[in-house]
Amino acid sequence: MVQPGVEEKDDGCVEYDRGKARELCAAIRDYPNLVFEGHSTDYQTRYKLRELVEDGFGILNVGPALTYALREGLFALSYIEDALLPKEKRSNFRQVLDAAMVEEPKYWKNHYFGSAGEIALKREYSFSDRCRYYLANEKVRQSINMLMHNFDDGVPLNLLSQFMPIQYTAVRYGELENHPKALVLNRIENTIDDYLYATRQKELK
Length: 205
Hints:
By secondary structure, this protein is mainly alpha-helical. It contains 10 helices and 4 strands, in the order ββαβαβαααααααα. The model has no long low-confidence stretch (mean pLDDT about 95).
């Protein structure tokens, strides 16, 4: 595993620059039985991911980008819930998740810095996605289950269009079931699609 000069930040990422990685990429040619694993390729565009593959990175390490997509999907449903349901029927997923993070800060306190407001924003939206460590928390799990149950009958299309436009289009085309689990999984698949493009999976089939 090597670091090809890419890294996520709280509100962005360092994009791959193949010019700066030229010497590193040349080194692997002396070892025909080895391939590079690119560390932390999260949030690179599909085109930068393809450049990494073309430059000899046979394995693209990805982590928080996938759980970030999961979090985006769950947050979208939570915002729809706020717009649609009375307070007593809501899961309050976003608030429950943040409360769990505040109660047990060990997974983020050494990663998020700034004012109280800046840290609160990072707990929810940082690309490093430290909130992924709290999804197994019992209260958070219960909240997710309630959130999903609230949309057992699907999401109204007008709100789906507002908060999950890519999934809305797929539902309208008949390519995706209007069910909360399917919607969230599809949001994760959007990120995976960039890696499939980078590794030319369609051409390999």
